[in-house]
Amino acid sequence: MSKVTIEQLLEAGCHFGHLKRKWNPHMAPYIFMERNGIHIIDLNKTQAKLEEAAAALKQIAKSGRKVLFVATKKQAKDIIAEKIGVIGMPYVTERWPGGMLTNFPTIRKAVKKMSTIDKMASDGTFNNMSKREKLQISRQRAKLEKNLGSIADMARLPAALFVIDIMKEHIAVSEARRLNLPIFGMVDTNSDPELIDFPIPANDDAANSIAIVLDTVVEAIKEGNNERKMEKDNQEEGDSQNRKTKKSSRERNRVMEDDDVEKKKMGKRLTRKMKNIEEEKK
Length: 282
Prior knowledge:
This protein is α/β, with parallel strands linked by helices and 282 residues long. Helices cover 57% and strands 12% of the residues.
């Protein structure tokens, strides 16, 4: 896993915080200084916390579990959709549907409804409907796709949550805390880092800052997925070798058993022959 440098974080503008009057006192350990009424984030802390979060996310990916990414702010939407869609993790970039985590079965029903509509379109059921019904169902499908399309493959609750701007996504954070899910997130100087498990102090309003953090996170998840795949391939290869060994062992045992049977038959024939010879002598 490549290490992001202080220079890269500086160039991306990760050090810019909010106005001093908007700060959260819990962010004090992550603030380097104040300049022209704006807090400056300590990028050494940013680098350390980003590496810590990336290592934890790598282990989650390696275990085959999912991480749900949440970013509904304008400057983060496209970045999340582009970078997270590539690694196959679920994400939310539209309005957070209340109860997505705490009432997950209901959300799954809505996702299944999308599948039902798709099935209706493919099996010809639409042909028997009026234009108005078709239009209503199509609009419903489009709305579901917009809000839930990116989590269609999430069959169960995610193993963790990654949030851009924990203040804006406070409902998502609250639901994850209620379910004791690990929460990763970018925290600016106006946020409370104590609300989440893996805070990454950084500017959560600049696209470049969000992108560099996500690049590191995505790379860590890719590495976790690759290591999982390698372990799985090695295990399958080992299982295959074990099956071959067992098969050859069974064949060897079968040959030995056949030899024993043949020897017993030969012994019986010799015994009968000797008996016949003795009887003839008498």
